């Protein structure tokens, strides 16, 4: 258990900065409670999917909300038989009132259709979105089969026996990203927008740093949220403190990028090795996507300009 605590501590120390591959490897070597419903808070159970990776941490966490005659499932995860069977078993005799998806990356929404077929539950939540992403994350490709019965707008609610889930639009990681608030307990299900172990990859063309920063500011203003349940990593028990740190981290990244340009490094491939020295090189392509997102945001604000693959400070 000491190894587990130390590994988790290492990740939490770096969570506002970057993924920590060494610590992740240490955790995934320890037996995890896959395909088991675990109580993680009032009205909330978690089922962990067996899809660990450098981008999903120990796997996708599917949440079951409710303790009465009906329940909701948030982020049903990958279409894997073991995971689907575990969700159906955890739902038990309750009615599945809604299957909600925060966004349509393949580690979040593919099980929505199969779970709906087995339970007759409606798929509700984010809008469908499919596009060719030229980023490096094979596990973050969009789910082309996602077909919601109802798309939630910001502030719309889904309710059941003793629970209410309200959509909180948080574009940035993807343009269709939603969080879901559970006002009965002060919980917010944050998908990939805010995670307990690392910052989110923001990968253009759909990932948008301007929108991501605005969504972080939106969550920081929500004083009613007392705990975050992300799709990957541990619960966040001091959410506004973490969000404040994430905003500061992104501003620091901006300054790093400007210093790189001042030092004569005008291409993203030249910047990344200097900016991410402590990050496993397997993550450098993804880091480059976030650098690109920052540069696009800086260009919108008139701070930088680019010509072909060269980024320059604006005159």
Observed structural traits:
alpha/beta, Metallo-beta-lactamase, Chain A, five-stranded mixed β-sheet, Arc Repressor Mutant, subunit A, seven-stranded mixed β-sheet, disordered N terminus, 315 residues
Estimate the global geometry from the Cα principal axes.
elongated
pLDDT average, as an integer?
Answer: 88
Total domain units: 2
- Using the coordinates above, name the CATH class of the largest domain: Alpha Beta
Strand order across the largest sheet = 1-2-3-4-5-6-7
Sheet with the most strands, sense and barrel status: 7 strands, mixed
CATH architecture of the largest domain: 4-Layer Sandwich
- Count helical runs: 8
Q: Identify the quaternary structure here.
A: single chain
**Rg, Å, rounded:** 19 Å
C-alpha end-to-end distance? 55 Å
Query: Given the helix and strand composition, which structural class is it?
Result: alpha/beta
Which range best describes the helical content: under 10%, 10-25%, 25-40%, 40-55%, 55-70% or over 70%? 25-40%
Which regions have little confidence, pLDDT < 50, spanning 5+ residues? 1-31
CATH topology of the largest domain: Metallo-beta-lactamase, Chain A
Share of residues in strands: 15-25%
Order of SSEs, N→C?
A: HHEEEEHEHEEEEEEHEHHHEE
Protein name: MBL fold metallo-hydrolase
Domain Metallo-beta-lactamase: 59-232
Pfam family, one: WHD_BLACT
Organism: Novosphingobium endophyticum
């Amino acid at each position: 258990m000491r190894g587990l605590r130390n590994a988790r501590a290492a990740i939490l120390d770096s969570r506002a900065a970057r993924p920590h591959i060494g610590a992740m490897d240490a955790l995934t070597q320890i037996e995890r409670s896959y395909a088991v419903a675990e109580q993680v808070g009032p009205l909330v159970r978690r089922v962990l999917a067996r899809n660990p990776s450098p981008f999903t941490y120990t796997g996708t966490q599917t949440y079951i909300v409710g303790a009465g005659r009906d329940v909701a499932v948030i982020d049903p995860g990958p279409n894997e038989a073991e995971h689907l069977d575990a969700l159906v078993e955890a739902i038990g005799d309750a009615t599945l009132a809604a299957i909600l998806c925060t966004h349509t990356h393949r580690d979040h929404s593919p099980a929505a259709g199969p779970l709906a077929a087995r339970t007759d539950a409606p798929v509700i939540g984010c809008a469908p979105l499919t596009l060719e992403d030229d980023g490096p994350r094979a596990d973050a490709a969009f789910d082309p089969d996602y077909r919601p019965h109802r798309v939630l707008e910001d502030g719309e609610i889904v309710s059941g026996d003793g629970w209410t889930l309200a959509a909180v639009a948080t574009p940035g990681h993807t343009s269709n990203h939603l969080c879901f608030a559970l006002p009965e307990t002060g919980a917010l299900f944050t998908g990939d927008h805010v995670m307990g172990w690392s910052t989110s990859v923001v990968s253009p063309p759909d990932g948008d740093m301007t929108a991501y920063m605005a969504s972080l500011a939106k969550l920081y203003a929500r004083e009613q949220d007392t705990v975050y349940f992300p799709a990957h990593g541990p619960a966040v028990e001091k959410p506004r403190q973490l969000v404040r740190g994430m905003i500061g981290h992104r501003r620091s990244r901006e300054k790093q990028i400007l210093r790189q340009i001042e030092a004569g490094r005008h291409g993203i491939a030249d910047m990344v090795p200097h900016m991410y020295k402590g990050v496993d090189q397997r993550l450098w392509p993804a880091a480059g996507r976030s650098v690109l997102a920052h540069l696009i945001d800086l260009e919108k604000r008139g701070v930088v300009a680019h010509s072909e693959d060269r980024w320059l400070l604006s005159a």
